[in-house]
Amino acid sequence: MNKKTALILSCPVMLLLMSLKTAFTPMQVQRPLMDSLKRPAKFGFGRPASAREIAAWDIDVRPDGKGLPAGQGDVKRGRILYVQKCAMCHGTDGTEKPGIKLLGNALVGDTLASSKPKTIGNYWPYATTLFDYMRRAMPYNLPGSLSNEEVYSITAYLLNANKIIKADVVLDAKNLYKVVMPAKKLFIMDDRKGGPEVK
Ligand code: HEC
């Protein structure tokens, strides 16, 4: 065997050995990340939220009316606002589902529990939730942009369109929580005791 042939023959053997080495060498054991516990007391960024900033987030409204802001709104103004700010997605009357491809329920329909599609009128147990939801989440493309008066007005319009309040009702913090939604009776308080209480 001359030198050249020996070199050519040894090549595949070398390659085989190399691949075996890679296959059988144990992967480097990963050490868990250790917390050095030498953290600084402050990281040097951020600042305490101001009372005003907290107030801007602290806007939840309860079914008993707690949290409802000052202001008032009526059906007529609500209708105009609805057409300006909501109809492009929810349809001119709110009877359609938002958009064609967007998820969501129709806003207006009859208030029978058995009826479809689900609407505020046949599915939502509290009028205050409607106020709370629209104030924080709608219009979908500009949430938080409605003034409290506007939310009261649109709430009035939608409750009237669902035949829950009369057209001349002016809604405010004193009467919105008193509006009884047709679906309220479908919800039962979970008052089970003894065991995990899931509310
Ligand atoms: C850009 C489109 C768009 C606009 C504009 C818009 N919405 Fe919506 N709306 C949606 C979508 C999408 C949903 C469903 C959201 C979800 O289920 O998470 C929705 C859901 C709702 C719901 C809940 C319906 C239900 O029964 O689940 C209400 C109420 C509502 N919108 C009111 C309004 C009001 C009032 C306005 C105008 C101030 C408005 N929306 C403007 C897209 C829009």
Provide mean pLDDT, rounded: 82
CATH superfamily of the domain at 59-186: Cytochrome c-like domain
Biggest sheet descriptor: 2 strands, antiparallel
Poorly predicted tracts of residues? none
By CATH, the topology of the domain at 59-186 is Cytochrome Bc1 Complex, Chain D, domain 2
Q: Which CATH class of the domain at 59-186?
A: Mainly Alpha
Strand order, biggest sheet? 1-2
Structural class of the helix and strand makeup? mainly alpha
Give descriptors for this structure.
C-type cytochrome; binds heme C; Cytochrome Bc1 Complex, Chain D, domain 2; mainly alpha
Question: What does this molecule look like?
Answer:
With 199 residues, the protein is mainly alpha-helical. The chain has a domain at 59-186: Orthogonal Bundle (Cytochrome Bc1 Complex, Chain D, domain 2). It is 37% helix and 3% strand. It contains 7 helices and 2 strands, in the order ααβαααααβ. The chain has helices spanning 3-24, 51-57, 75-85, 87-90, 120-123, 127-137, 148-161, and strands at 72-74, 170-172. The protein has a two-stranded antiparallel sheet with strand order 1-2. The structure holds heme C.
